[in-house]
Amino acid sequence: MLRVVSWNINGIRSPLQRMVHQEPGNCAAVAVGRILDELDADIVCFQETKVTRDVLTEPLAIVKGYNSYFSFSRNRSGYSGVATFCKDSATPIAAEEGLSGLLATQNGYVGCYGNMDEFTQEELRTLDSEGRALLTQHKIRTQERQERTLTLINVYCPHVDPGKPERLDFKMRFYRLLQIRAEALLAAGSHVIILGDLNTAHRPIDHWDALNLECFEEDPGRKWMDGLLSVLGCQAGPFIDSFRYFQPEQEGAFTCWSAVSGARHLNYGSRLDYVLGDRSLVIDTFQDSFLLPRMLGSDHCPVGAVLNVSSVPAKQCPPLCTRFLPEFAGTQLKILHFLVHLEQEAVFRQSALQLGNQTRVQMRQNKAHVHSPRLRPSQAGYNRGQKNLMSYFQLPSSCPQASVDLKHPNLPLMCAFRTSMTPEEEATAKVVEVHVKASEAKDEKEVQTLFWKSVLRGPPPMPLCRGHQEPCVMRTVKKPGPNLGRHFYICARPQGPPTDPSTRCNFFLWRRPS
User: Fold this and answer.
1) CB 37 within 8 A of CB 64
2) Are 15 and 298 in contact (CB under 8 A)?
3) I need a surface site. Which of 122, 283, 318, 492 has the fewest CB within 10 A?
4) Is 159 annotated as catalytic?
């Protein structure tokens, strides 16, 4: 069996940090290894890694038992990006970054690009500049012992920001490029799986509020998916949505929820993540297609599929493999290199004993040398003992027996020699000094506390929403426009269907400027 999983991880370092926090002392290598173990897949495809090459660390990129491949955004740091982790038993025969072929290395690339004459070279570079696609090609063996080629296209398709209408054109051109490349691979005889975040809910059943969305069916992204997929048994497109192949009418099967509104609690989301396979591959070899909504750590959940084939691993990883990057190459020493072989243990124990004996002899010699009567003049002072620091201070003959301390005017300053006071006077002076200092410190602390309380009054109490009479939460406007940066209050309950009274009410209130 071959198990593949896809997950928009929304920052590969974020869920890792939470895992490390749960188990103090663990490093990122342990955390990413735990995620891969929990997903329990031969091939794991991550989207929205939000790392660029300059911040990629070895513990994130190189995990024992896996070989990894990354595609980075060339334009922005902490943005986009995809990564594919393959078990060593599923090592690919080729790997390539991007869809256009312009980022392909001289060897080890996948190839099969199709006719891209409708794109300019500049447009192709732009479409591949955000690190949204990564291809790995594998050898698989069917139950009939036939070896075939399987190409996985790990994609993070663009999202359309309502404030940036030009991104719709970028998204549709990316879709077009993806389809050309996938169909070219099919024409060359390879099976193809497209998996990842396609950023489109295909059918009304894939969106919680499709019936209330205007022109849902006319969305350009949905029309593109109609042409790519075989829908409800029709043979319109060369690919099949594997989840709907096994669960054609399952409702509430969502993979993405708004983290800000807490919509996941009420399953108020949409299905944006897919495992799409070519028709013959899905019909002949797919055993299951699933969602993992209980897997937390992102605003998306993982999706995956199980194929009734086995992987034939390549003898060596393609050049794109992360371990071949110059910053990582040659630095992966196994822990066995730092351990002692059993047959050498006796030798090392004897060496340690000899070293210990030599150390004890040397310590005795040093001790005898220190107490030798033939000391140099500079050593004599150490045998007599070091003087107390106070012995270097002398009381001026003009100093009175007592004066006033300017810092503590109520406390007599005992500047005479200790021999001029009785023991009872010394004790009394110390007690008085301690009490005065403690009292002044307490008074000063109380004054400071009252001052800061008067200056920092704290945030005003949250208003109550009208629907439930419960404290609201404050949000900030992030959309560009005249209200950018303004704060407002809304109901604190999670977002859900408008007909459900237990979900968020429509209360809204601008926060008054302070």
Assistant:
1) no
2) yes
3) 122
4) no
pLDDT (0 to 100) of residue 348: 41
Q: How far apart are CA 69 and CA 85, in angstroms?
A: 7
Inter-CA distances, 122 with 109, 110, 159, Å: 21, 22, 21
- What SS3 state is found at 155? strand
Label residue 261 exposed, middle or buried (CB < 10 Å: 0-12, 13-18, 19+): buried
Give Cβ neighbours of residue 337 (< 8 Å, ≥ 6 apart).
none
Mean pLDDT rounded to a whole number for the chain: 82
Q: Give the active site residue among 128, 274, 300, 489.
A: 300
Interacting residues of 466 by C-beta distance below 8 A, sequence separation 6+:
505, 507
From the candidates 197, 241, 273, 299, give the one annotated as an active-site residue. Answer: 197
Report the alpha-carbon distance of residue 109 to residue 90 in Å, rounded: 17
Residue written as token pair 């000899």: 354
Q: Give residues with Cβ within 8 angstroms of 183, minimum separation 6.
A: 114, 238
Is 241 an annotated catalytic residue? no
On whether the CB atoms of residues 467 and 491 are closer than 8 A, the answer is: yes
Alpha-carbon span 185 to 177, nearest angstrom: 13
Burial code (b: 16+ CB inside 10 Å, e: under 16) for 432-451 equals ebeeeeeeeeeeeeeeeeee
Q: Report angle CA 345, 350, 352 to the nearest 5 degrees.
A: 95
**Catalytic-role residue among 113, 156, 245, 489:** 156
Contacts of residue 298, Cβ cutoff 8 Å, sequence gap at least 6: 7, 8, 9, 10, 11, 14, 15
pLDDT digits (tens, 9 = 90+) for 142-172: 999 999 999 999 999 999 988 888 999 999 9
Give 5's strand partners.
44, 304
SS3 category, 263: helix
488 bridge partner residues:
475, 510
Max Cα–Cα distance, the chain, nearest Å: 112
Q: Tell me how far apart the alpha carbons of residues 475 and 16 are, in angstroms, rounded to a whole number.
A: 27
268 classed as catalytic: no
- Each residue of 46-69: pLDDT tens digit? 999 999 998 898 888 899 999 999
